[in-house]
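User: Please predict structures.

Assistant: First:
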Amino acid sequence: MSTTDESDTRIRRPRDVREATAATPPPRPSRRRRKAPVLKRFHTLRTVVRWSTAVHRWVTVVLGLALVAQVSCGCVLLFRPEIYRMNHPELFAATDTRPAVTAAEAIRITRETRPLVQAQATLIDGVFQVRSGRAGPATYIDAGSGRILGTADPNGGFLGFLTNLHACALSCEKFPGYQPWLARTWLTVPVGYWLIALLGAALAWWCVSGLLIWWPGIRNLTTRLKIHLHRGSYRALRDVHDVLGAVTMVFLLFWAVTGAGFLIPAIASAWYAITGTHSVTRTVHSVPGAGPDVSTDSAVAAAKSLVPTGRVVAVMEPGPTPTDTYGIDFNQGTTVGRGIVPLAPTSVAVDRHTATATITRGGNVPLANSLWDKWTYALHFGSVAPWPLRTVWLAIGFAPIALSLTGIYTWLHRRRRLSRPRARTRSHRLACRNRDPGALPVGYSHGMRNTAAAGSAERRPWYADLEDAERRGAHGSAGIGYFDCDCDICHQRHHERSF
């Protein structure tokens, strides 16, 4: 057969059919379904998230009050130097000149008024603080004139109690509120230190599990960082909880790790192992001898030979043990630390018999050591910033309190909703479905139009909550869990959604 014959055998459509086909628009492609986050894509990860959610909530119930107390004490202690100065302004009335009195002279001036054992002199903003050891009352001497300004206990009173509670869990003997049973050692560490480490672990678990529960995926990240204030109190507080936790998670995790690391040596060892370094902090002992101790001025001169550009900010005499040494602290350049006892970047130990000096902390050390030995303390306590900038630490310190309150409220709200009698809910649900559709309001669901025409027997499906909808194959975020009548139960379900 020829080509012309083949074309003649084609089926020809009527003209009106061809015009109707041309006027019909092509079918729209089906809407591509958004990929679920990776944490919800796999069954194992979903199980981990479910168990993490349960542990996250119960940790809040069990240790939430202790964490709130710990964080509240830390918020007050951020401004401890300023509060102490407000209570004792006469102790910091320094002469506005260069220091004319050395630390050794300040110790001698104090010894003329009262005895000192293992004297320690610390320079704080032009004033020497002289005391016996690291506790007890201190005498304040003007470094410019050598005048005695007064005597007070920097670790006493309410601020001392908060310091003992926050830093030692009431296990420090020379602070108010000391509890002997908390000072008992377990695995060479006091029990109080283990309690603080437990709170640090709980705070770290809050951060890690909260991120695991909240993580929505890269595509939905901007949506989950919004706070919806017009969708009921539950949704608003849940969004506040999520956004606040996501914003402050890094800071809270840093506080948890460093707070426990100051007391548990194993955490510092883990840091050095991860960074591939080792601790350069040394413990030096004096050579036993029967001769007299070298003078304080000689010890300072020997330490000065190792740190020629440093400025002496603290001098500590050796204790009663024959192997104890002098301790000399220097500041080089900017001062990291402020207030009651500043943090010196370089420490030198001097033999009490031979005047041999050895750097025990600071100096030329690797970056990993400098970050842990120097900057963790400064960043944890906010000593790196003046008091106006420390309000940022204060705002972040209130985050665990707000997270605890919003988390407990949303959890109790959800448990109360899920604890309703199922029989009553099911019977009411069936009653709503079996009612006359013509008597029900149409499209009464967040302003959405009902797909079932008035008077028809077709009803849209009912979902108890978002999990029920996802389990039954539904997707989307609007119109889930709508109500079909104007009764109180349906009205409450409509306006107080739990997702």
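Second:
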Amino acid sequence: MCMSPSQRLTFRDYLRDHPDEALRYEALKLRLAAEHRIDREAYTTAKTDYVAQVMRKATGLPQ
């Protein structure tokens, strides 16, 4: 998922304001890093659904 600079800030700010969500993101990143150790593109793609879900929460869009 390609995000604009303002979207990245929205994502970051949401995680800062919701530490429980930040912990889930951390756990996801660690798991995906282990699963996709040599494939950065697959790692990034695997985060797409989660990032989109957080962005919907952050912007108040329906889940």
